[in-house]
Design a protein that fits this description.
Order of helices and strands: EEEEEEEEEEEEEEEEEEEEEEEEEHEEEH
CATH topology of the largest domain: Jelly Rolls
Number of strands: 28
Shape: globular
Radius of gyration: 22 Å
Distance between the termini: 68 Å
Strand order of the largest sheet: 1-16-20-13-10-15-8-7-28
Low-confidence stretches: none
Helix content: under 10%
Length: 430
């Protein structure tokens, strides 16, 4: 199945891999062409406002109800909701990049290799999120995954992914992201060992942020989000395993054939990929700092206007030109909690201690900012126009406090000396 794409976030798409498979003018005709089954995947309540309603009609060789009984699936490191966090002090926290194990020693696919780092909220209450790292050294084989709890935002950091979904194929490399709807089956295939980050969003669907005074252009453009065209598994029917995340737990069931049997589809609940190089960064061209919300790619709103369940924010290559201004982020304490990762290059506020694949966590009202070396250099730097290159950092930012998992606290990657990076900051001589 070779990937092909259609563009536009939130669009109504139509696609068929076999001529005549897509009904014209009827969602559910008495008899679907080619003997296919009609099936509706609803991502919102039926009565949601038209602008917010997300659903896709699928026309498939076999209905998804044809699956065996589910039994518990053992994966001790994938956690769900605040109930699975541990008590931790209000310290700034940082983790080194977790190594991907050798396949001969510990074979891990995308599901087996998921490691939850921090989380909040409640999947059943449809609020909050979990932040994970995946460590994968082999493709999923005759296995598909369905997340009934959340949509998943995948941020590859090392190694490209081929994500096979019910409605087509996404090729996603580091520097790109994939957004996978809740309830849609997918499989992750690898070319070589891979590592990356995942936001499991229990709350409202991710959407493009409103632009307000910015106007009609800027940040992420809808046209740059790509959805796959229809492609289906044409191989012979064989035994498959369906792994489902449901109610905060993992379950598995046998299936007699591939779930990737959708021949045609139409709707707006679709997986998408986005290349962060297309992000139109906006910043000051005079002095001072705009708030980091200008780097928001996607937002999951909460029931409080302007306060996100989760924001996905990136810090890409960009020009710095502000006059008489300390250019890295100032020291700050936020209502929002920040989970940060680094895809490649350097982060300007932590040029030495924060490496690609690493993680930092600064919870609500935990002070943080540039380390002592970054502060010293930025305070004395010549304020000529300067371009940050070879850098891509991101944040999962949430209104809810993150709780780290036991694995995060005891797994060996936690930097116990993180706070020492501010130890050389001197008090003002007054």
């Amino acid at each position: 199945m070779n990937p092909q794409y259609q563009s536009g976030f939130g669009n109504e798409f139509t696609s068929e891999a076999l001529a005549g498979a897509l009904p014209i003018g009827r969602n559910s005709p008495q008899t679907v062409a080619h003997g296919l089954y009609a099936e509706l995947l609803s991502g919102t309540a039926f009565t949601a406002p038209r602008a917010d309603n997300r659903r896709t009609w699928l026309y498939r060789r076999q209905a998804s109800v044809v699956v065996g009984n589910y039994a518990p699936f053992a994966q001790a490191f994938w956690k769900s909701g605040a109930k699975d966090g541990v008590v931790a002090p209000p310290n700034p926290m940082r983790w080194a990049a977790l190594p991907v194990p050798e396949m001969a020693a510990q074979p891990l696919d995308f599901v087996d290799g998921m490691r939850t780092i921090a989380l909040n909220g409640d999947a059943d209450a449809q609020s909050g999120m979990a932040a994970h790292v995946y460590l994968a050294n082999r493709s999923m084989t005759k296995r598909a995954f369905v997340n009934a709890d959340a949509e998943m935002l995948i941020v590859p950091q090392q190694g490209p992914l081929t994500i096979v979904t019910e409605v087509g194929v996404l090729e996603v490399a580091p520097g790109e992201i994939a957004l996978l709807p809740r309830g849609l089956a997918f499989q992750v295939q690898l070319k070589h060992a891979s590592r990356g980050y995942v936001c499991e969003n229990y709350g409202a669907h991710f959407r493009l942020p409103e632009l307000g005074p910015i106007g009609s252009n800027g940040l992420a453009n809808a046209r740059d989000f790509l959805a796959p065209v229809s492609a289906y598994d044409k191989g012979p029917d064989q035994a498959w395993e369906i792994v489902k995340k449901y109610g905060g737990s993992l379950w598995c069931a046998p299936a007699k054939a591939s779930p990737f049997n959708v021949v045609a589809w139409h709707g707006n609940l679709v997986p998408m990929k986005y290349d962060t190089a297309h992000f139109m960064a906006i910043g000051s061209i005079s002095f001072d700092h705009p708030d980091p919300s200008i780097f928001t790619v996607l937002t999951s709103p909460s029931d409080t206007p302007g306060v996100a369940n989760c924001d996905f924010v990136i810090f890409p290559p960009r020009w710095l030109v502000a006059e008489n201004t300390f250019r890295p982020p100032w020291y700050h304490r936020n209502v929002m909690s920040e989970f940060m990762g680094l895809v490649h290059g350097q982060y300007d506020a932590k040029p030495e201690g924060f490496k690609p694949g690493g993680i930092s966590l600064h919870n609500c009202m935990v002070p943080h900012g540039p380390d002592a070396d970054a502060y010293s250099r930025a305070s004395q730097a010549e304020l000529a126009p300067h371009k940050l290159t070879d850098t891509l950092a991101f944040m999962f930012e949430s209104r809810w406090r993150f709780l780290p998992t036991e694995f995060a606290m005891k797994g060996g990657a936690l930097d116990g000396a993180y706070a020492e990076c501010w130890g050389n900051l001197k008090p003002a001589p007054i």
